Amino acid sequence: MAYRLIHLSDPQLVPAGQLNYDIDPQSRLRHCVDRLLQEVPESSACIITGDLTHWGEKDAYQVLKEELDRLPYPVYCLMGNHDHRQHFLEVFPDHPRQSEGFIQFSVETALVNLICLDTLDDRKRSGILCEQRLAWLQHELNASDQPVCLFMHHPPFETGLASMDRDNLINSEAFWAVLQPYKDRIRHLFFGHLHRSVSGSWQGISFSCPPSLVHQTPFDFHNPKPDYVSPEPPVYNLVDLHADRVVVHAHNFLHDSPAINSRTCQRYQKPVDPDS
Ligand SMILES: [Fe+2]
Ligand SMILES: [Fe+2]
Fold this sequence. Notes:
The protein has helices spanning about 25-40, 60-70, 85-90, 130-140, 170-180; strands spanning about 5-10, 45-50, 75, 105-110, 115, 150, 185-190, 200, 205-210, 235-240, 245-250. It has one domain (about 5-250): Purple Acid Phosphatase, chain A, domain 2 (4-Layer Sandwich), CATH 3.60.21.10. It has a 6-stranded mixed sheet, covered by helices on one side. Strands 3-2-1-10-11 form a 5-stranded mixed sheet, with no helix packed on it. The longest helix has 15 residues, at about 25-40. By secondary structure, the chain is of the alpha/beta class. It is built from 5 helices and 11 strands; from the N terminus they run E-H-E-H-E-H-E-E-H-E-H-E-E-E-E-E. The mean pLDDT is about 95. Strand 1 (about 5-10), helix 1 and strand 2 form a beta-alpha-beta unit. The two termini are about 35 Å apart. The radius of gyration is 19 Å and the shape is globular.
C-alpha cells in the first residue's frame, strides 16, 4: 500500500488582504486546500518545501496557519530563503525542529523515512547546510536502514534557469559527501525554490520540483535578471511512495476549461445525478 503525500512549494504568503505580484496568495492557498480536500482526501501528509511567506512577517504565517488548519492530516513546513524561523515558530510552536533551532526533522512511515532539511542562510537568496545541519543529516541517515526521501528548499545543482542558478545550495559538494555513502537508499529528492515544474536526476537520484502556488519564474535560459514574473498556473504534486517506486503526479488545480466528450468531440456535459 502506498504512502500518499502532497508536495507544495513556495506559497509566498503575505499578511491578509495584501497582494504579491498582483496575486492574492491566501486565495491561491485556499483554492489549493479546497481542491485537496475534494480530490485527494485520503492523503497522509502535506509537505511544503519553503518560501512559506514572501517577507517572513508573523502575520503572514498566521494566514498560512489559518488555511493549513483545514487539512485533516499533518502538514510539515520547511524554511526557504524568504522565511523567518522565529516568526514561523511563534505561530507554529509545536512544529518539529532540530534541538539547535533549525527546522529539520524526520517523518517515519512504514515504507520510507522522510528527511526534511533547513537550507535557510539568513538574509541570503542562496541556501546552505552548515556543519551542524549536515551532522544532523548524517545522524538521521545512519539511524535506520529504511529507504529515504529528502526534502529541502534549495536545489543542490544548476538547472539552467539563468535567473535561479546563482541562488542554489552553495555547498552542494559537502552535502553530496554526506549523502554518497547512503545513495542506494535515497529514493527521491523533493525541492522547491525554482517556481517552475522541473524533474530529472542528480548523482543518480531522481528529483522533482513543483511550481510556486503564486508567481512563476520565466521560461528563460539566458536572461539572469528578467524584469517580469510569469503568470503560469499553480500546481500541487501528488506523490505516491510505493515499496518499488515513487510516482509524482502534477495537478494544475486552477484549470477550469470545459472537458471534451471523447465520443462526440463536443463540450462534455456531466451526467445528471438522479439523487441530487
Ligand atoms: Fe520562492
Ligand atoms: Fe526560494
